[in-house]
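assembly run, all chains below
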Amino acid sequence: MAETERETILDIKDLSIAYPISIGTVRAVEGVSLPVYKGEVLGLVGESGCGKSTLGLSVLQLMKPPGRITGGSILYKGRSGESRDILAMDQKELLDLRGKNIAMIFQNPLTSLDPLVSVEDHFVEAIQVHENEVKRKDAVARAEAILGDLGIESRRLAEYPYQLSGGMRQRIMIGLALILHPDLLLADEPTTALDVIVEAGFTELLMKLKRQYDLSVVLISHNLGLVAEMADRIAVMYGGRIAELASVDDIFDRPLHPYTKGLMDCVPNILLDQKELTAMPGSPPDLVNPDPCCPFAPRCPKVMGICRSKTPRLVDYGGRSAACWLYERKD
Amino acid sequence: MNENKNEARADRARFSPASGLAKALGAFSEAARKYRVEWWILVAGIVVVGLIVFMTVFPGIFTRFDPNDQSAGPQLGAPSFAHFLGTDNLGRDVGARMVYGARTILGVAIAASFLSALIGIPLGLISGFAGNWLDKVLSLVMDSVYSFPGLILAIAFAAMLGPGVINITLAVSVVYIPTYFRLVRGQTLQIKEELYVEAARAIGARKSVILAKYVFPNVIATVVVVFSLNIADAIMTEAALSYIGLGLPAGIPDWGMDLSMGKKFLPSGVWWMITYPGLMIMLLALGFTMLGEGLSEILNPRLQEY
Amino acid sequence: MSAIIRAEHLVKEFPVKGSGVGKNRRIVHAVDDVSFEIDEGEVLGLAGESGSGKSTTGRLLIRLIEPTSGKIEYRGKDIISYRLRELEELRAKVQMIFQDPVSSLSPRMNVGEAIGHPLDIHGIGDKTWRKEAVLGMMRKVGLAPAEYLYRKYPHQLSGGQSQRVVIARALVTRPDFVVADEPIAMADVSVRALILKLMRDLKDEMGLTYLFITHDLATAKYLCDRVAIMYLGRIVELASRDELFSHPHHPYTKALLAAVPIPDPKARKPKDLPEGEIPSAIDPPAGCHFHPRCRFAKPECSGGRPPLRDIGGGHLSACILD
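ok done. output:
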């Protein structure tokens, strides 16, 4: 495995996000600390409701009210070198950050693209919003160049989103995300809506572009196969918290957290001859007004008394971390 | 000993009417907190409509006069202690005419709305579900009727049918049939494409059963809301019809007619004959509107954005 | 083992709206002459990407949509000729599980009503018996406590519970054949395994036969006995599970298998992916639909339609090359 530089490009520290609803508060993300190293692909894995998408949106402060950040900081260290807290940025700094330093692509390319705007105009707008002195001619030239990297013919510039296939739209999305050469890309379930062959092509493209554009990537997904292929490190989320954080090999070879293990065991692997899939009983927790306990306790095959009364912290065990009372000293 | 007494007292307190009231109020204020403005609108609507309906059922509580009694008081008497709302040009107590007039207008409006719904809803369901030539023909007819200004249509029918409570009801109901038709048809078209309708076909349900058990229950929520708003509209239409003198015979107390009478005497400074009918019409229509809007928000709450 | 379902030369064409009539009319060839049979007690997987026609085929098999042409036999009887009454009776014996459990349940019917409705339609049992049958079915599919969940509405259930309700509803009339249209596609990862296991257990317990429609070959491998791969309305390969996954023949099958993401970082390898994307089903390529994207394509491939031939031991492939 290639050595990852230990320089962090994004450092999420003790982040908490909550939504008030009529019967209480939903603690969607609770005390999450997560560094993203420069040049790596960090997979953020979990099922629905675990908080991974909310976490992703919060990096660019794209959450919609009533969701709000209730604590923590997100430090971004770009090419200029100094660390800035994204949560402390004002609107102008945020607008500058988005697209130019950190970009995001989403699950459904059809709804992410404006149906009334041509491909070319999408690019021109993306460029001119950040660099308004750039002439249209030059912007179009840059768009053409990136289409080449994406494997799309430049005649597509004149077309509209409805004329493109799903895979092509998703590639345009990456193009728009990378046109200003950000150093961090957030991808929220980018292949969930794609057919499997298109998905494989997209994955290859993303890895190629990552090398070419020297990107760091945070890949949010529930697809274990996808993260196994792309990620260097994986953070497993459950109940709004990080359950485990380790290199991709460690996660798949020797998962520490029972949830991670459960997840591994219940995903079919086409290369293996699996007679049985071990399924985890129960369903993800309700995050409304949670009690102090391990969120996985109700479903954990290795649950102990302490799991039900105290929340385990994410503890480092020599290069990898887990939040589980099986490993944490109880003092 | 003392403990037992206290326990008993505590028990009594737990099950006392006061605690019951406290619980009810608790639930009430919780709902109010949950839905805020919409809840209060709904409550206001319920109160207004409830009061007026109560008035129609127990008119004796509100007035002791007969609305048609021309010797109830002096002619054109101003509001006084004896006659709270004054008397009209024929010596009838205005207050009594308001109380009893509620029956007329409410009766016609509700009956007309009911009739419109009874005809419009099934037609809308069938038309939307069938989707073929039947749908095209019915839509054409309904759209034509709908595009006609409602009041003029009502006037035309009222004039054609002649006077009488039933005829007025029919005239008013014709105006609103397309409303229900279009609403239900639109919803049906949408629901028809839902997976659960296909699933209903897969388990072997016949079209009629699908319409009744799968489509209709999912349409009904919007219909209930529209029903209330419709009544508000029908109230105005009925008042307008009787204002211009169409429909109701003289012996039946009617706000619209009183409004028209009141207009005649306004120049001579008699303000109470026109004001109160106008106010009542407005109040009743407003009550039903608030009821409808409040219900709309409660039954189909806007999804909270995450 | 006898074939419980047989499809012969099934064709389904959809006219493209607004494309006129007669010769100029454009048609979507959703299902293009598909034939296969399913033995009693087996699970046949129907796998493919979007536009493959797999969902349409599933619906055709139980006559949820009418075929443009072709024959469908259930236990030897031609069900195309069935009239209303026979069709109704058929529905008690052949059933469907849908992809999105939340959308396939009416929001205004509670669990008990939804599951019990098929019994009501087919006049099975009286009210008391039905309630017990529904509760029993609920417990069988793992909806517990049954009495409590009986009165719940779909929006009050979790995704996994909703799918169990859909399964219970499909099985309450004790059908023998069930078409499952991507039943786990919308479920959470951990719930998928539960539903798959449930389906397998129920199959053994109730003697069911499944047509399992999916885009996920990994789950097909787990659950199915035989797998058919569809591409643009045609079956391109059909073989037993072990044969298909260890010796895929058709280039499209190979591409599909190579593209499936593996949950194992050590399995990373460069993939030879076909060029381009799935063409439109309105104007598919001539001859073999896959030939424009196939690296092994020869001139003959754009000729006539390649037949589904037996390449040995019942392994069928629609590729003319060896």
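Residues 3-93+175-317 of chain C form a domain with the Rossmann fold fold (CATH 3.40.50.300).

Chain C is about 30% helix and 20% strand.

not gonna interpret more than that til we talk
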